[in-house]
Amino acid sequence: MKAKISIIGAGNVGATTAQLIAYAGFADVVLFDITEGMPQGKALDIAEACPLWNSSVSVIGTNTYADTTHSDVVVITAGFPRKPGMSRDDLLHANADVIKKVTTETSRLSPDSVIIVVTNPMDIMAQIAWKISGFSTKKVIGMGGVLDSSRLRTFISMELGVSPEDVEAIVLGGHGDQMVPLPRFTTVKGIPITELLDKDRIDAIMHRTKNGGAEIVGLLKTGSAYYAPAAASCQMVKSIVLDERRTLPCSVYLNGEFGINNLFVGVPVTLGKNGVEKILEFGLTDDEKTLFHNSASAVKKLIEKIAEL
After folding, report:
1. SS3 of the chain: helix, strand, coil, percent, to 5
2. % pLDDT > 70, the chain
3. Average pLDDT of the chain?
4. Annotation marks residue 70 as catalytic
5. Active-site residue among 70, 175, 207, 293?
6. What's the whole-model pTM score?
7. Cβ neighbours for 235, distance < 8 A, ≥ 6 positions apart
8. Cα(195)–Cα(201) distance, rounded to whole angstroms?
9. Which alpha helices (DSSP H) does the chain contain, by range?
10. pLDDT tens for each residue of 228-249
11. In a 3-state reduction of DSSP, which class is residue 255?
């Protein structure tokens, strides 16, 4: 029996995540959205592509939460994009209300599921989903670090003219401007980039990584990135469903690790059938520790703006 993945929100990120899972063929997909007809149409389009992909999975679209019952993984992409005139606080509160509603419904219908939160501001939304669901901290995970590290790997490969498959990277902290890429743990076939690039080039690449999402928004003029966020979400789902135990940077609840308490923030973890199988803690330099704690503090300040938490 195939695993069941419910994707909440059939916008660009949600629909593309559904497409990638269906293409890979490792799980059945339910695509949910409150807009009538939209998830049904996108799901049907994906389903009609499955024969061409030699994929035998089921893909359905729905406006009814009941169709998500007994999901193995719930991926939450639903929420509002930031619009002109909308402050960060406005976005925070608007999406907090969405996450509360979605989590209440899906956690009730799929009490044994793992929740992956994609909606921004992601670390804060993951914390809300955990609070509302009442799930174990191992069962609620924020997507962010996987995307950020993929962007860093891309820019390194472009700079050095090497395959991105041979580049490994770790990005810590909140999914935002204060994320913390770690040059000394960024390698090409095991060779640290500090041995391959000078400091100015490394700093420029780290800066571009931090602004990776904004760069795409600026180029598109309308809309934001969705191919890479969907690919990151799909990789996380696959690691959980197939118990691959991949080590990936994700936003998870820290209870003393890296000196952080009671907060969702990005660190490397092992993802398997139980969700977060292990948090990989390692030593940081004084400078890295300062940057990481500053990033965590920025996440905490946003959480404090949500009165219920």
Report:
1. 50, 20, 30
2. 96
3. 95
4. no
5. 175
6. 0.96
7. 146, 246, 248
8. 12
9. 12-24, 38-53, 88-109, 122-133, 145-160, 199-210, 212-220, 227-241, 286-304
10. 999 999 999 999 999 999 999 9
11. strand
Which helix (H) or strand (E) segment holds residue 226: the answer is none
**What residue type is 268 in one-letter code?**
P
Residue 110 tokens, joined: 């799929």
State both tokens at 12: 């660009």
What is the set of domains in the chain, with CATH numbers?
Answer: 3-142 (3.40.50.720), 145-304 (3.90.110.10)
Structure tokens at 17: 């995540």
Beta partners for residue 60, in sequence order: 30
Q: How far apart are CA 222 and CA 24, in angstroms?
A: 29
Helix (H), strand (E) counts: the chain: 9, 14
Cα separations in angstroms, 253 against 98, 131, 135, 276: 21, 11, 12, 10
